[in-house]
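Good morning C.,

I know you're traveling, so I'll keep this short. The sequence:
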Amino acid sequence: MQADIAAAHAMPMRLETEPARMTAAVLAARSQGRRVGFVPTMGALHAGHASLVEAAAKACDDVVVSIFVNPTQFAPHEDFARYPRPLAADLGLLERLGVRCAFTPPVEAVYPRGLAERIEVGGPAEPFEGVVRPGHFAGVATVVKRLFEIVPADAAFFGAKDWQQTLVVKRMVAACGIPIEIVVCPTVREADGLAMSSRNAYLSPADRARAVALPEGLAAAAACWEAGADVAVAEQALREALDARGIACDYAAIVDPESLGPLADPRGPAVAVVAGRLGATRLIDNRPLPVRRVVDRAAG
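The tokens, ready to paste straight into the viewer:
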């Protein structure tokens, strides 16, 4: 095993920008019996992305990572133009991680002229981010489907921080009949609990200190949940954590982890989801909640 890892690191990473060559390389590897893992990213890579690459490397023979800032998932007023693009640093990290191929296509390669397909996903795409960012998940589903066509891997790896997005991707894959396994990996956090995100770089030092309200609120909601409190009580604890630090709350809810709808069984399982704004920066987070034995109806 160590020899295999050493060999992977000794092999230079391939850089690819052309979809047809990328597809041919993946199909050639799979025809040789090699399992290919794919990690789609928008760059500005951090330890959370590295954990996805490491998970893919453990499960697969070859790993492909895409770096593509997808314009179709940004609304006109959002941060597409200022989204960080440290490509040289990103490629250096991927090479150190032993990635076999980095796919960095231009926009016109992913969306060639005449490609008018747009994937609309209902169900889990509709609440929360779907309300706050109309059209966002259509852009996500569209680009992920396109990337899966270009990189026909055995498995694709996503982070649980974007819980709603993982549900949307799973629904799109099932609806379109794409033969790829979707692997969801645990959220990676900073030492103070803040979920790692490329947008954390936007935070001023003061806002960075306030941002811990998101994981603190999720922890408070989890404590209420485990104590048997009513869902509304746990949701209020989550909102109050953001309010206490002056963070504008877009949503704070405890919902079914698959549908994102109301809980059919108050014992769960569930997921707590939250989104807040600190100045011009918007952060999201979530925390899965286990099945609980007791629900205290008097707590509501």
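Safe travels,
E.
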